[in-house]
Amino acid sequence: MRFADWEPHYTAILEYFGFEREADEAAARLLADLADGRDDLGLLESLIRDRTVTVCGNAPCLAEELDRVEGTVLAADAAAEVLVDHGIRPDAVFTDLDGATDVFVDLSRQGTVMVVHAHGDNVPLLRHWVPLLPGPLVATTQAAPLPHVHNFGGFSDGDRAVFAADEIGAARVRIIGFDLADRNVDPVKRGKLFWAGELLRLIGYDI
Q1: Where is the 6-hydroxymethylpterin diphosphokinase MptE-like domain (predicted)?
Q2: CA distances (Å), origin 17, targets 25, 161, 180
Q3: I need a labelling partner for 114 at 20 to 30 A (CA). Which of 3, 107, 129, 168 fits?
Q4: Domain extent listing, the chain
Q5: E strand or H helix at 56, and its extent?
């Protein structure tokens, strides 16, 4: 999705949550510095383009739906640990690092692409975790893209993974571990689930 097409939705999200664009932009610049030129977009594209892709959200239902995993596996943040616990190594993890643990470092070392997202609220996490990730890295932002910092569209980890798969050209995208109607979450998370549904419908995924 071109940033010009994404920007109206991004602006609406900023207004909805009261987030500051300037903070997102500063975080993106920091991530660019921390990545220090690392950009494994080509590897991510080779895993996704013309392939069946399964995007795994981190809803409680994920473990019950793992029999539907097929093709390239994209994990949304802490869903990666659920997959690892069931013997599945994700091909890529889309994460703003709020669910990061040492499992992410191990996956990075094994060759999983870490698609790390910068936003105004995760600067300390970026500073801590990015230098610890030794393997393939793709940096993303929800603000205007920078050299080596990409914006595929999407807002939360799960819907960003779907947007990336769609943008890069997956032949088919399967979505599991999503529960956008979950009421057992705090108001901010409920807002994120609302926006995930709205954004996914923009590109043809009605969950």
Answers
A1: 42-184
A2: 16, 21, 18
A3: 3
A4: 3-203
A5: strand 52-56
Q: Kindly indicate the confidence band of residue 73, based on its pLDDT and cuts at 50, 70 and 90.
A: very high
114 forms beta bridges with 93, 137
Residue type, position 3, single letter: F
The identity of residue 160, as a single letter, is: R
Within 13 Å of residue 60, how many CA atoms lie on the same side as its CB?
Answer: 5
Token digits of residue 185: 């979450």
Alpha-carbon gap, residue 78 to 27, rounded angstroms:
21
Please count the CA atoms within 13 angstroms of the CA of 19 that sit on its side-chain side: 23
26-47 pLDDT tens trace:
999 999 999 999 999 999 999 9
Q: Give every CB contact of residue 64 below 8 A, 6+ residues apart in sequence.
A: none
For Cα atoms 154, 20, 24, give the angle at the middle one, nearest 5 degrees.
Answer: 55
Q: In this structure, what token pair is assigned to residue 76?
A: 């949304």
Its pTM surpasses 0.85: yes
**DSSP string spanning 136-185?**
-EEEEESSS-BTTEE--S-SSHHHHHHHHHHHHT-SEEEEES--TT--SS
Do 91 and 73 form a contact (C-beta atoms < 8 A)?
Answer: yes
What is the secondary structure of 65-130 as a DSSP string?
GGGG--SEEEEETTHHHHHHHTT---SEEEE-STT--HHHHHHHHHT-EEEEEE-TT-HHHHHHHG
